[in-house]
Design goal:
globular; binds N-carbamoyl-L-aspartate; four-stranded parallel sheet; alpha/beta; 368 residues
Length: 368
C-alpha cells in the first residue's frame, strides 16, 4: 500500500502528475461522482480542525464514497490508554483509507507502519501537513498559472507552523526564492533551513523587513502564531500581534501577486484585506476539496497515477531522538528509524559531521 506522509519526498514529475489530477477534479468538486463508490475513509483527528477534516470528508462524499471517524480524542479509546499502533490496527479493518491528524511529530509515519490501508498525514504536530501543501500548490498553480521560479514570502510562526515548512520543502525543486519574516524566536527550525539551503540548494533569506519582502513577493504566505504549541502562555503573549498584513502592505505587493493563508486566521491578516483581488485564502480553501479528492482517488488506485518517492534509506539505530515532541517519546515501542545525513560542509552549520543521523519520524538531526 501507498501512504502519503511527506509531499517533499515525491519527485518533481510525480508532484506535477498529482497536481494535474487535482486540477482535473476541480469541476467534479462541486458535484458528486461515483469514483470511490463503496469505499470508506476514516478521519482520525486527535487535534482540532475545521477545514482539513471537513474537506477530507467532503472530498470522499464528492467521490461517491463514505466516511467515519472521530474528531475528539476524549471520545476515542486513546483516552483509555490505547497505543497508536493498536488504534490503527483496528481502524484499518473498518476503512479503506485513513486520514490522521495527531499532535506528535512523526505520528503519520508511525501509523503507516501498522496499517494495511493507505495512511494520509493530515498534520503531525509542528512537523508536516502535506495535504495542505498540495492544496497550497494547487492554488498557486491555478491562480498564478505557474510554479517555477517564484518569490515566496513566508510570514509568521515558522517554528511551530507545519504548513510553511511543508510548503518550502515541497516547492524546493521548482527553484523558488524563499524569504522568511518571523518574530524573534519563531524562525524556521534550523534543520529545515539547513535542508533547504544545503541539501536542496534553495535560495532562502531571512529578513525582518516585511514591507521590503512584500514588494517583491509572488506569493505572500501568512501563518498564525501556533499558540497551542508554546511551552508557556507568557512566551505567546510576547509575540502576539507582532505582525499584521494590512491594506497598505498588500498595496505594496506586485500586481497579480497572491496573499495566501492556510487558515484559521486570528489577527495576522486585517479583515479589510479580504476584499483585495490579491487575497486568495478563501479560494485556497475551496482547492482543498479537489486536492484531497485526487489524493484519495490515487491512493485507493481508482486513478492510475504513478507517484515516485525519493526517500533516504532508513535503518534501526540505537540512539534516541532528541526532539521532545517526537512520536517515539509517546509511542516507545516504535522502531528507532534514522537515515544517515552525510557531507555537511557548510561552515554556517557547524561543518562536516554535524547532524549525522536524521530521525525518520520527525526529521530532527542528532549529532554523532
Ligand atoms: C493549519 C494547520 O492545522 O496546521 N490549518 C489547516 O490545516 N488549514 C494552520 C493552522 O492551524 O494555523
Amino acid at each position: 500500500v501507498q501512504h502519503f506522509i511527506d509531499l517533499s519526498t515525491l519527485d518533481r514529475p510525480s508532484k506535477e502528475r498529482l497536481l494535474e489530477t487535482a486540477s482535473e477534479m476541480i469541476p467534479v468538486a462541486g458535484t458528486r461522482s461515483d469514483i470511490a463508490a463503496g469505499r470508506i475513509l476514516a478521519t482520525l483527528f486527535y487535534e482540532p480542525s475545521t477545514r482539513t477534516r471537513l474537506s477530507f470528508e467532503s472530498a470522499m462524499l464528492r467521490l461517491g464514497g463514505q466516511w467515519l471517524g472521530f474528531a475528539d480524542v476524549k471520545a476515542a479509546s486513546v483516552a483509555k490508554g490505547e497505543s497508536l499502533a493498536d488504534t490503527i490496527r483496528t481502524v484499518d479493518k473498518y476503512a479503506d483509507i485513513i486520514a490522521i491528524r495527531h499532535p506528535a511529530e512523526g505520528a503519520a509515519l508511525a501509523a503507516s507502519l501498522y496499517s494495511d490501508v493507505p495512511i494520509i498525514n493530515a498534520g503531525d504536530g509542528g512537523h508536516f501537513h502535506p495535504s495542505q501543501t498540495l492544496l497550497d500548490m494547487l492554488t498557486i498553480r491555478q491562480e498564478l498559472g505557474r510554479l517555477g521560479g517564484l518569490t515566496i514570502v513566508l510570514v509568521g510562526d515558522l517554528r511551530y507552523g507545519r504548513t510553511a515548512s511543508s510548503l518550502a520543502l515541497a516547492m524546493a525543486d521548482f527553484r523558488p526564492h524563499v524569504i522568511t519574516v518571523t518574530p524573534d524566536g519563531l524562525e524556521l527550525p534550523r534543520h529545515i533551513y539547513r535542508r533547504l539551503r544545503v541539501d536542496m540548494g534553495v535560495n532562502v533569506t531571512e529578513t525582518s523587513d516585511l514591507k521590503e519582502a512584500a514588494e517583491i513577493a509572488d506569493v505572500l504566505y501568512v501563518t498564525r502564531i501556533q499558540r497551542e504549541r508554546f511551552f508557556s502562555d507568557e512566551e505567546y503573549q510576547e509575540v502576539k500581534g507582532s505582525y499584521v498584513v494590512d491594506e497598505r502592505l498588500v498595496a505594496a505587493m506586485p500586481p497579480g501577486s497572491l496573499v495566501l493563508h492556510p487558515l484559521p486566521r486570528v489577527d495576522e491578516i486585517a479583515v479589510e484585506v479580504d476584499n483585495s483581488d490579491k487575497a486568495r485564502y478563501f479560494k485556497q480553501m475551496f482547492y482543498g476539496v479537489p486536492a484531497r479528492m485526487a489524493l484519495i482517488a490515487i491512493l485507493l488506485e481508482l486513478k492510475e497515477v504513478e507517484l515516485e518517492y525519493v526517500e533516504p534509506d532508513r535503518e534501526v539505530v540505537n540512539v534516541k531522538c532528541g526532539n521532545a515532541r517526537c512520536v517515539t517519546k509517546t509511542e516507545p515501542y516504535l522502531p528507532r528509524y534514522f537515515s544517515r545525513v552525510s557531507g555537511r560542509t557548510d561552515p554556517l552549520f557547524g561543518g562536516e559531521g554535524a547532524g549525522v543521523y536524521r530521525c525518520s519520524y520527525c526529521d530532527y538531526e542528532v549529532g554523532g
